[in-house]
Design goal:
Helix content is 76%, strand content 2%. It contains 20 helices and two strands. Strands 1-2 form a two-stranded antiparallel sheet.
Length: 485
């Protein structure tokens, strides 16, 4: 079974070969990377069908079985986020018309590294792939030429990200010192005895803070607003809508497999609530659209963290539903914000010049708030069900979540009102057709989700149940344990 490894190798090979192809065959070069994404999408859909038929599977590299060898674990959870990464990268393809080879290379590195990140079955390779994604993200965030503020924001991103990577490495080192292994299935067997003490839980705290840099969680998310405000709009859409979710998948795996301790869940819950409050209040006080969307993204990623902190399949289901919805809607919102810069007051009258873009923004905003029958209502309703059923601390978190929806509605409606106000001044230029095309695709997908909410809910419930089955994870990745299963 070569499919999983091809999901990683093909983008890396493409990133390596792309400059040479462009140098000698420029017309061919413009098609290489999109073709790789399409091929990987086909491979991923084939793996998805295999998981539906025979269940979760694992792949041992080079014939070395776990815990000695490198293992990829292929289940619905990992494939769902690989599909989101591939389809989002294809939709937002950075080299579609201007042929910036360096950006194409960095995006392929993110695709390959992100796929490996969610498929990896050992902590060492999780760290390696995370670093690849992080370094490529730093480069993409600084890809707007001649923007000094953008370079400064990218430097801050780099410094905070480097600190986060160091904390992850320190946490992994502590785990290895305690257990002598980094294989996740092997660690799952050892965790109840060796990782539930102060040292083991400290390792989790360090890794959680480190992964929180990319997941936009409190308190290491101070880079978000400036980077998303100055980076190319497609980069902001990719990082906020897609890449940020990959780190959350790793955090979820750590919770499910290694840290079922109440302390770990409460720590993630506390970070989620703190990020939700600060993110939504910052979005309310922001004065321009892209910063509002950036701070809103912090709040939404914090809601996903709250969902994943709820033990059991229902918490996982709510987190996946929220992540799936946010990936769609926030991507569309960022694409609409390309030409709408500056203070809100300068955007009066935009709806008269760009009625379609304004209508799409209203639809996306209403779904983000959670107005029925749009899919955002379903995602938030699932979270409320899971949270109120989980206990006292989660019920308090749900009250905070409901209050945050009021704040969220206030700043989205404030912006919508400005768009439809009359203005004596010339409104900003209408978004280019290239910016509207991805937003239109997102709108169509949002409509399909709304019409197919029941089968989607069923499939995501199956994924959540499969992800929470720790024994199945060990059974599929650690052959020596099958005798005792």
């Amino acid at each position: 079974m070569m499919g999983p490894i091809l999901l990683v190798i093909l983008p890396f090979l493409g990133a390596f070969m792309l400059p040479m192809v462009y140098r000698h065959y420029a017309q061919v070069g413009s098609w290489v990377a999109p073709l790789i994404l399409v091929v990987n999408l086909i491979i991923c859909l084939g793996l998805w069908h295999g998981v539906e038929v025979v269940g979760a599977q694992s792949m041992a590299m080079g014939g070395f079985t776990a815990p000695l060898g490198i293992v990829f674990y292929i289940d619905g959870l990992s494939l769902l986020f690989v599909l989101l990464l591939l389809s989002g990268s294809l939709l937002l393809w950075l080299g579609a018309w201007h042929r910036r080879v360096k950006e194409e290379m960095l995006l392929l590195l993110i695709v390959g590294g992100g796929s490996g990140l969610v498929l990896s079955g050992d902590l060492f390779n999780v760290y390696v792939f995370f670093e690849i994604v992080a370094v490529a993200s730093y480069g993409l965030s600084a890809s707007r030429r001649g923007d000094a503020c953008g370079y400064a924001a990218s430097l801050r991103f780099l410094l905070i990200g480097s600190l986060g990577s160091s904390l992850i490495l320190l946490g992994i080192s502590i785990i290895y010192a305690l257990t002598g292994t980094l294989n996740l299935s092997h660690l799952t067997l050892l965790a109840p005895e060796l990782l539930q003490g102060a040292a083991g839980l400290s390792a989790f705290a360090l890794m959680l803070i480190g992964f929180s840099v990319k997941a936009e969680l409190f308190p290491v998310n101070t880079w978000v607003a400036e980077v998303y405000a100055h980076a190319p709009v497609r980069v902001s859409a990719l990082l906020a809508g897609i890449v940020s979710k990959l780190a959350m998948v790793v955090v979820l795996r750590l919770l499910l497999l290694l840290y079922s301790h109440e302390y770990a869940y409460m720590l993630l819950l506390g970070i989620g609530v703190a990020g939700l409050v600060t993110g939504e209040l910052a979005a309310f006080h922001a004065k321009d659209l892209r910063r509002t969307l950036a701070y809103s993204s912090i709040g939404q990623l914090s809601v996903i963290a709250i969902a994943f902190s709820i033990p059991g399949p229902l918490g996982i289901l709510s987190g996946i539903a929220l992540a799936f919805h946010h990936a769609l809607v926030k991507t569309g919102l960022f694409m609409l914000a390309e030409n709408w810069r500056g203070d809100f007051s300068s955007l009066r009258g935009v709806a008269q010049k760009a009625p379609l873009a304004s209508f799409l923004l209203i639809v996306f905003s209403l779904s983000m708030i959670g107005i029925p029958p749009l899919p955002g209502f379903w995602a938030k309703f699932v979270l409320l069900q899971a949270g109120f059923a989980a206990g006292n601390w989660y019920q308090i978190a749900m009250i905070v979540f409901l209050l945050s929806i009021v704040v969220e509605a206030a700043y989205f409606f404030r912006f919508i009102r400005v768009l439809y106000q009359n203005s004596a001044e010339q409104p900003p230029s209408m978004p280019h057709k290239r910016e509207l095309q991805p937003a239109l695709v997102v709108a169509v997908l949002l409509l399909l989700v709304m019409l197919m909410i029941d089968p989607i809910n069923h499939n995501l419930t199956t994924i959540a149940t499969q992800a929470s089955d720790v024994k199945a994870y060990i059974y599929n990745t650690l052959p020596a344990w099958k005798l005792d299963y």
